[in-house]
Amino acid sequence: MAAIKDRLKTDLVAALKAHDDARKSTVRMALAAIANEEVAGKSARELSEAEEQSVLAREVSKRKDSAEAYTAGNRPELAEKELSEAVILSDYLPQQLSEDEIAAIVGEELDAATASLGAKPTIRQMGLVMKAVTQRIAGRGDGKTAAALVRAALA
Question: Mean pLDDT, to the nearest integer, of 127-141?
């Protein structure tokens, strides 16, 4: 069993004992998401730690998107709940990269792509750059931010 799932189970017991309803429901949701991912596909399997981080990062992203939708729909109490869940889930993920750090990685990968292609990549070659950037920021940075920075650099 991977370390994140063990930590989630330990934290669930602690939240149950402490009667912390917000943490309890969020941790249960995270364990359910990991369990669903384990049984998805043709056969059940145990996730690696990187795959568990990916599942949790996806859940954090869902919470942030929901919070934006609730804010736009004039439901601040629901947006606040979603954001608090995102904060709890973020505790299980590695330290996130700042936008400046992502921009530096984008710059390095653009330079590498320019060197390999012999010319600056065009917007049609964005996928080439994004593939390299995504591999470097996997689990530590926001893909939307990276895509926006790459698109701006190529435009």
Answer: 87
